[in-house]
């Protein structure tokens, strides 16, 4: 019987005999968890299902991640870091034009979340139950407090709106309304995915095609709606 408390250096050899590739067990568990969370959501997922998906024992999952909550947190952080790097990874992000910023927000979010569509629901559930935890998780992902990042974003969008309104190329709108509109239109298909699958007859491939189409068309739709 395998001793799940064996240190990683020794356990990797035993894991190889048990069919677990040496050196990538943790990543296999994370990949499996992401797939299970996509199917079940974090609330409906079970550690045994994650273990079965990864081809390891549940005890080994708990060796790397002490609980389902800790595993969900790690998967969220990995996805959030990827998304935030795409959104704000370049120093010039907050100097971009309004059109470029909207396109960047929409495409980066869709590209990141389409591979982990449980993330919006996970965040909403966490925000309702433990709002301070969401603040901490997002802060870990972006390397600063979300309120500070939001302030930077709002300041830049405010300047862009004021400039565009002054030259007559945009109708007046508060920056908060604009950013919430962008977020709502981008996030909704993921939150409403079960309804869309039923009402519009989406299977996995059709939903993926729909996201490709939305990725192309949504930035232009938002930008056109801003014109006077």
Question: In short, what is this structure?
Answer:
With about 230 residues, this protein is mainly α. The chain is about 75% helix and about 0% strand.
Domain tally:
2
- Our estimate of the beta-strand percent is under 5%
- Tell me the series of helices and strands, N- to C-terminal: HHHHHHHHHHHH
Query: What's the alpha carbon Rg, rounded to whole Å?
Result: 21 Å
Q: What's the assembly state of these chains?
A: single chain
Please provide a written account of the structure.
With 228 residues, the protein is mostly helical. It folds into 2 domains: 8-66, Orthogonal Bundle (Arc Repressor Mutant, subunit A); 91-225, Tetracycline Repressor, domain 2, CATH 1.10.357. Helices cover 76% and strands 0% of the residues. It contains 12 helices and no strands. The longest helix has 22 residues, at 204-225. The radius of gyration is 21 Å and the shape is globular. The relative contact order is 0.09. The model is unreliable at 1-22 (pLDDT under 50).
């Amino acid at each position: 019987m395998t001793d799940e408390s064996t240190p990683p250096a020794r356990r990797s050899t035993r894991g190889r005999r048990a069919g677990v590739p040496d050196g990538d067990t943790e990543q296999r568990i994370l990949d499996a968890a992401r797939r299970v969370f996509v199917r079940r959501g974090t609330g409906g997922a079970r550690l045994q299902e994650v273990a079965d998906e990864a081809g390891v024992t549940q005890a080994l999952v708990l060796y790397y991640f002490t609980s389902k909550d800790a595993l969900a947190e790690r998967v969220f952080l990995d996805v959030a870091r990827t998304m935030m790097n795409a959104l704000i990874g370049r120093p010039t992000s907050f100097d971009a034009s309004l059109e470029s910023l909207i396109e960047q927000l929409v495409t980066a979010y869709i590209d990141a979340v389409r591979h982990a569509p449980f993330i919006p629901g996970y965040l909403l559930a966490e925000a309702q139950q433990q709002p301070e935890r969401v603040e901490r998780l997002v802060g870990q992902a972006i390397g600063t407090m979300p309120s500070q990042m939001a302030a930077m974003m709002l300041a830049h969008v405010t300047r862009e709106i004021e400039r565009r309104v002054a030259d007559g190329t945009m109708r007046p709108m508060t920056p908060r309304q604009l950013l919430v509109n962008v977020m709502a239109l981008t996030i909704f298909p993921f939150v409403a995915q079960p309804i869309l699958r039923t009402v519009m007859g989406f299977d996995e491939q059709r939903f993926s095609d729909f996201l490709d189409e939305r990725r192309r068309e949504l930035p232009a739709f938002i930008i056109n709606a801003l014109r006077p």
